[in-house]
Write a structure and sequence with these properties.
3% strand, 192 residues, mainly alpha, rod-shaped
């Protein structure tokens, strides 16, 4: 769209096709109102004027010109005080707000798409790593923990053998003491 190009409609200049299209719609509304409403009746004019302002129906320069016409008719009649009429709205340029909002939305959308791609990639990598760790744990036999466990078991087996030997020695010593005690008891009896 060429920014320097302007459009003229019913004596008003518009900078964009969107403004022109909005003005054409408002022109149709104004034509319909002129054909249907009794603009000679001041009460009708005041009601119509205030209702159009409240609803924000007419916002282009063309629509505001019609509102100015209604306002002038009401005030010229002398039956209406200016305080009973709403103030005229400022003409708006509809192309700027939607474009900036649209461009902000596009930027946000692109930003979140990029974030989503990165997050998806990260999650996929982490899932692959977890699967690999499970496979290694299930099928791997040589782990540092397995080696340490085997060393502890071997050392415990050595202690067990030592303890068994010492226990056997103690049992033999106990037997010999028991026999020696019996001999002492027999000698003592012989001596008596």
């Amino acid at each position: 769209m060429d920014k320097k190009k302007t459009y003229t409609y019913q004596g008003f200049t518009f900078h964009t096709e969107a403004e022109l299209a909005e003005a054409k719609k408002e022109a149709e509304v104004v034509t319909y109102i002129r054909s249907q409403a009794d603009l000679g009746n001041v009460k009708t004019v005041v009601k119509l004027y205030n209702r159009l302002i409240e609803k924000g129906t007419l916002v282009t320069p063309l629509g505001i010109a019609f509102l100015q016409e209604l306002r002038s008719r009401a005030l010229e009649s002398g039956l209406v005080a200016e305080s009973s009429l709403h103030a005229l709205p400022e003409p708006t340029k509809p192309e700027k707000q939607p474009e900036t909002k649209l461009s902000k939305d596009k930027k946000l959308m692109e930003y979140y798409k990029e974030k989503s791609k990165r997050l998806t990639f990260t999650v996929a990598v982490l899932c692959i790593v977890i699967v690999i760790l499970f496979v290694i744990r299930l099928f791997g036999t040589a782990s540092p923990f397995t080696d340490y466990e085997q060393k502890v078991l071997n050392e415990y087996a050595g202690w067990k053998e030592e303890l068994t030997e010492k226990e056997e020695t103690l049992h033999q010593w106990e037997k010999s003491l028991t026999e020696w005690e019996k001999e002492l008891v027999q000698r003592e009896q012989e001596l008596q």
